[in-house]
Amino acid sequence: MLFFTVLIDLIGFGMVIPILPFMAPQLGASHFDIAMIIIAYSVCAGLFGGMWGKLSDKFGRKPVIIFCLLVTAISYVMLAFAHTLTAVYMARILAGSVAGIYGVASAMVADISNPEDRAKSMGVIGSAFGLGMVGGPFLGGVLAGDDINFFLPSMVAASFSVMAGLYAAFFLRESHGVEQRQAHKVWRKETGKVSFISLLKQTHNRWLIIEFLFHSMVVSTVTYLFPLWMGSEWDWGPKQIGIVFGIQGLLMAILQAKLIGILSRKFGELNVLSTAIATLTLGFLLASQAQQEHWMIASFFLCITGASSCAPVMNSILSKRTPLEYRGRMMGSASALGAWGRVVGPLLAGSLLTLAGFSIAWGAGIIVGLLYIAWPVRELYQARQKVLS
């Protein structure tokens, strides 16, 4: 049931992606304004993501998800009727403020899955993201049409969020019920107020949660640079870019839904994570040197395929290391940190692109990839040392 709730919402979210870059210029926006509109969403998601996770620990996952979905619908209605740049900003700020549904959804998956199948379950939810981000932009582009109609895609996106909210209200089962919430209250009374930094130390998640920042940085860098790169070097347009993104989205959905769980059980989550990060780093290395069209496309698939394999595994590891009483807070904070990565990644890549060109901008991804892989390699080394001792 959670899969369909997330899928329906992500289709609506994906529908507005292809129209925003075209909508803003008609309202007098510059390229800088377009970038800031996109960044505003991620900034608000970063500011409020942890709060929604914390509230889900206190009041339950289901009511938080429903509330966020319905407020998201309101933001799309605001976008549909936006006739000024300020109105567009306000709509995206509101949408970003309630983007905490994704961290709460991950916490719900952790609640209802056993540790052995956790990575598989996270992968299934991840596949909903992939399918939503394939179907959403396609449907949004079709509804916008050649005349670029903004009202219709925005209103349909709002209806999708309302449908997701109603579906959640009637069919989604609460995974963090009265007993769990009561245990949370008792835990809080016994332990007192625990700061997030203290919680990270207690659960040994200090370095793991930084991985979510690195992850979002590399993904957002790829999705930012690749369209500009192909447009500049090979005169690609939205159609060709959309086809490549669509194919990758389908592959991502299949990988996360079917293979991640199998690979994690067979080889271990840390081995899968290390291999996935190495794959995406190899993609950045190839991109920094690629001169031909097919190598450029290959580098994109390597980057995104590797990155797609990381997220379910990291969510699984984080949930296992976090007490149930604080799981929503931790998963929400990880989602929020990921949102900040979607701010830092494009800003860093865009600055390097302006100053030094595509090769250097892609090369920065190699450095982030090396920082990214340091934690799982360190964990594997320590695990082997314990076995040997």
TrEMBL record:
Subcellular location(s) of the protein: Membrane
Gene3D superfamilies associated with the record: MFS general substrate transporter like domains
Keyword field: Membrane, Transmembrane, Transmembrane helix, Transport
Example of a GO MF term: transmembrane transporter activity
Gene Ontology cellular component annotations, sorted alphabetically: membrane
One Pfam family matching this protein: MFS_1
Membrane topology recorded in Swiss-Prot or TrEMBL: Multi-pass membrane protein
Keyword Nucleus attributed: no
Transmembrane regions: 7-28, 34-52, 64-83, 89-110, 122-144, 150-172, 207-229, 241-263, 270-289, 295-318, 330-349, 355-375
Keyword Transit peptide found: no
Domain Major facilitator superfamily (MFS) profile: 1-381
PANTHER family from the UniProt entry: MAJOR FACILITATOR SUPERFAMILY (MFS) PROFILE DOMAIN-CONTAINING PROTEIN, MAJOR FACILITATOR SUPERFAMILY DOMAIN-CONTAINING PROTEIN 10
Protein name listed in UniProt: Major facilitator superfamily (MFS) profile domain-containing protein
Annotated source species: Paraglaciecola hydrolytica
